[in-house]
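Workshop exercise sheet. Pairs work together: one partner reads the sequence aloud, the other fills in the structure field after running the prediction. Swap roles for the next sheet.
Pair: D.N. / O.F.
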Amino acid sequence: MLGGRVIMLGGRVIMFGECVIILGGRIIMLGGRVIMLGRRVVKLGGIVIMLGGRVIMLGERVIMLGVYVMMLDGHVVMLGGRVITLGERVITLGGRVLTLGGRIIM
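Structure field:
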């Protein structure tokens, strides 16, 4: 235990200060932001820069499943080299990009 922030249990690390829990390769960022299974999440300034595999982002602007995503200021989404600039929430499922209102973007 270091400063009440890091706890190691059998190789498992729980970092409370960074609001991240790593358990058996699973990464869960508390505060309703990111649930990551089986891959590594790079998080800078509260924004997920790079994610792979299955990712569910809660309380943020994008929900992605199985695609590479890049978010900048919550407005830019990159899908396979394509850049979409949005000012609202986005859901992507199976290659389709929808707003929460149901409008099809791509």
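Discussion prompt: Residues 5 and 16 are 5 Å apart (CA to CA). What would you look at next?
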